[in-house]
Amino acid sequence: MSVVFITGASSGIGARTAQLLAKRGERVFGAARNTAAIAALEGVAPVALDLTSEASIHEAVAQVESIEGPIDVLVNCAGYGEFGSVEETALADARAQLEVNVLGAVALVQAALPGMREAGHGRIVNVSSLAGEFAAPLGGWYHASKFALEALSDSLRGEVSQFGIDVTIVQPSYVETDWHEVAMDRLEHTSARGPYAAMAAAMRRHFLSPARARETSSVDAVASLIAKAALVRRPKTRYRIGPGASIAVALATFLPDRTFDAMTRKQFGYV
């Protein structure tokens, strides 16, 4: 039995992953601001957590360690998408995006690592996104957060392997959750009425289109992949999921930048 600490466990992918791991017999602690929702999950112990507060992060890890000892598996699943043009996004909103998606995750890693090192083993699963492989207009700050998480994960993996600790990344594409609704609300707030209004309207149409639905993974499929990354004996460094995900990354990698830019504009209907 492994001691698993997972963030974002109050809803969506995090909640489903916590449930799957608990059903497999792991000792699961689910963390979020809304602990009432976590308490309703069978086999998952709720832990209050505010990712923008270092004190809350250290208190959460200390709470788990006081009950079960060192955390065996840390799953950083919490996050959201700050959408809107780079020009129009308030820096306060940009900082909040990085605080939750990057610095909060790293603070949890820093808090959990001493126990893992002492135990001589551990696993860190950072839930990133295809948005950490390439960038598109109107998602700059979200992409920046995922690019940063990917880079930090790669550096961390090289640093902690000597202590018997693995670091792996899960990269979902579109998923059937309310994440997109929140992202589109942020887009509306930031860029629906200014010089980028036409581009923002095109992006909203894309996210509501049947074509996007065909590119979407189920919550269960993504949660199953995260659970695999958390428990498999020798994890891959990256797990990617979503129809056409690997093709999209290959195109972003090998096509000239301006060619990929043009393809992205066409996909989202930017004309």
Can you offer a commentary on this structure?
The protein is built from eleven helices and nine strands. It has 271 residues and is of the alpha/beta class. It has a single domain (3-268), classed as NAD(P)-binding Rossmann-like Domain (Rossmann fold, 3-Layer(aba) Sandwich), CATH 3.40.50. Helix 1 crosses helix 9 (219-231), helix 3 runs parallel beside helix 4 (91-119) and helix 6 runs antiparallel to helix 7 (197-208). It starts with a strand and ends with a helix. The mean pLDDT is 93.
Features of this protein?
single chain, 271 residues, alpha/beta, Rossmann fold, two-stranded parallel sheet, 11 helices
Percent strand:
15-25%
CATH top-level class: Alpha Beta
Question: How many helices in DSSP terms?
Answer: 11
Provide the spatial order of strands within the biggest beta sheet: 3-2-1-4-5-6-9
N-to-C SSE string, H for helix and E for strand:
EHEHEHEHEHEEHHHEHEHH
Report the count of strand segments: 9
Which of globular, elongated, flat, extended, rod-shaped describes the shape? globular
Largest sheet: 7 strands, parallel
The CATH homology group name: NAD(P)-binding Rossmann-like Domain
Binned, the helix content reads: 40-55%
Low-confidence stretches: none
Topology of this structure?
Blueprint: E1 3-7, H1 12-23, E2 27-32, H2 35-39, E3 44-48, H3 54-68, E4 73-76, H4 91-119, E5 122-127, H5 140-160, E6 165-172, E7 174-175, H6 179-191, H7 197-208, H8 210-213, E8 216-217, H9 219-231, E9 238-241, H10 245-254, H11 257-268
Helix pairs in contact: 1-9, 3-4, 4-5, 6-7
